Amino acid sequence: MFRNYFKIAWRNLKRNKTFSLINILGLALGMACSLVILLWVQDELAMDRFHANDDRIYRVMENQAWAGQDVSSTPATPGILAENLKKDFPEVEKAAMMTWEQNILLTVGTTFGKENGRYASGDFLTIFSFPLKQGDARTALARPDGIVISEKLAHKYFPNQDALGKTIRVDNTDDMMVTGVMGALPENSSLKFDYLVSWERFVKNNKWVKEWGNNGPRTFVLLSKKADPDKLSAKIKDYIKQKTNRQTNNIELFLQKSSEAYLHSNFKSGKLDGGRIEYVRMFIIVAVFILLIACINFMNLATARSVKRAKEVGVRKVVGAERSSLMGQFVGESLLISFLALFVALLVVVLLLPIFNELTEKKLTFRFADPVFWLVLLGLTLVTGVVSGSYPALFLSSLKPVVVLKGVLKFKPSATLFRKGLVMFQFSLSIILIVGMIIIYRQIRYIQTKNLGFDKENLVYMPLEGDLQKNYPTFRSELLTQPGIKAVSTSWSDPLEVGSSTIGVTWPGKDTTQRILFNQTAVHYDYLKTMDIRLKEGRAFSPDYSTDTTNYLINEAAARKIGFKDPVGKEMTFWGRKGIIVGVVKDYHINSLHVAIEPLILHMQRNEFSGVVLVRAEAGRTREALASLEKTFRKFNPKYPFEYKFTDQEFGNNYKSENIISKLANYFAFLAIFISCLGLFGLAAFTAEQRTKEIGIRKVLGASISNIVLMLSKDFLLLVLLSSLVALPVSWWAMDNWLKKFENRIDIEWWMFAAAVLASLIIALMTISFQSIKAALMNPVKSLKTE
């Protein structure tokens, strides 16, 4: 029986090559898209889950409440938190501190380079399961002069040698011993580093780490097996208040599972509010949408062509076939098409996966050796086959032999309405994707072109380190004489992120019970000129005023927060140092565009210079300016490699995820429309075939080609218009929620919806027109001829 079913199915595929090709191609594209998204989602969900004790690893977070501001959540914590938590709470089995990413100079003999890594305390390598090929995870970071390096760095600095026990010079100041060598970090690790330096060195160079009032490093804890994370989170809530003996302290601690931090990183009012998980959910929905569109194509075409198989069903019922066996045959045919589509889909994915990996900066692969992978593939194919074949099977198996054997099959109004409803549904999904594509593109474009309040073009910055720190004034003076250089200054922070904040600001009349948070950074002369920041009132720092070393510049947001009507000339105390506000700068973006511009205080770097050197190149002379910068740098800092960053490029890198999402949205929207149009093409061809004699008669009676094309097209175009009535409210709701994640965002305008509907109509018309014109041009003599 099954052999006969297979033969019949195969013959039907061969007999109707065009419709078979449309069905297989449509399902294959839908399945290929779903497979790619499934691989991407699987990779995202697996991020940071490879650690042996994943279920017990948590990071400590802070909720900070400041006057006039929403509660903010941050992973930055006091540098002495880990050791105290381990000491005071038996639920904490291990605890470790880790810094943000550091870029420091490593030197061995004549080989040197700037490498990316972190400082970490002793328990770090025993909490996490990073692959340590040499050394002991329990003691590798215990030595004050210990450093753990990657195999890559071991090959670079100790070629053809055993690196363990060897010495590396760090920042030309300290000799560190290699106490461990790590293998390559797993691709699904969100923490990236090529070395880990002993925490003791960081503490030695940063005394502020030992104070409860200073935040920065990250704290990770490994809970005991019997510990309840929720109860512990409640117990540590007021821990910093207790340690500082200040009940007015507005900082509360809580725990977040470490492996969930990658996908769940956004907080609002101290509560979890999404993150990258939203993109995961979005693409799961997109995958379902596209697969549904492909299935609907199959259902529509199979149902529309049922007239061709009506007599077959009638004859088989007359000779005793039961409805269940007929349903089995038609579902079996759809499963055959699904498996053929799966083969094509796998081929498409194999060909396109390298391009997708390049686009998303992933390293996705087919896990052919994983039985779960094959089970998922089998499940996807079965679901696709059963869903796409279910309605045709039910419809065809329900036909009555007496009716179908009399002559031409007539569809009931309900069947026609159902088919039209399916067309509307798939075009509704397509229009939703097109609207999403337009709005996401516009939002990303808005971010890329938004005026940040300073000019990010022709602005270069580089670390202020090594001999540059002590020779900066001379370095700056010589650099300003070089061709292509317009202005030079320094800042503690890079141009796109002011990462330091303080509540240590007072002024006459301030309410002492209010704890107001200000961002702050130290700068040098010509900072405003180099950044091209506009003054609202007052003046910039100038060497003509010796008191400027204790004076301040503030932005408009800070002026509003302080409450002075005319801030210039008013007294302000910052970190216990009294000074005068000499100028107010126009608000400019000091952090991500996802957040509002916050209060900022600029103060002067005095004798010790650190942070970054900012260099403004003259327009059109960037290459010349870089050559001048390199020549001067090598003269003053020969022991360090010459490295620099363009502000505009770094700005683009900060929104890389949004750029990737925008591109993927474009591709998926195009794919959804293409699959929908495949089905529309098939339906138009079938309709034209069914109405061949009608078209012939109309032509004989004088109907023009345009009349016939309009007659065949209008019903389909009406369905697309009706689809928009469903799609537009849904797409507005979805994209409005997405845009709420941006503090700086575009407005959703009517033309975006109009453009999506118009694009759908034009694409649908182009698809239908081919078959309509072909039918209209047919010779009526041939179309009216009786067999």
TrEMBL record:
Pfam families hit by this protein: FtsX (PF02687), MacB_PCD (PF12704)
Boundaries of every MacB-like periplasmic core domain copy: 20-238, 429-627
Highest taxon in the source lineage: Bacteria
Domain ABC3 transporter permease C-terminal: 284-400, 668-780
Subcellular location: Cell membrane
Keywords assigned by UniProt, alphabetized: Cell membrane, Membrane, Transmembrane, Transmembrane helix
GO molecular function (one): transmembrane transporter activity
Segments traversing the membrane: 20-41, 279-299, 335-356, 368-387, 421-441, 667-688, 716-735, 750-770
GO cellular component: plasma membrane
InterPro entries: ABC3_permease_C, MacB_PCD, Macrolide_Exporter_MacB
Membrane topology reported for the UniProt record: Multi-pass membrane protein
PANTHER family: ABC-TYPE MACROLIDE FAMILY EXPORT SYSTEM PERMEASE COMPONENT 2, MEMBRANE COMPONENT OF TRANSPORTER-RELATED
Protein's name in the database: ABC transporter permease
Organism from which the protein derives: Larkinella knui
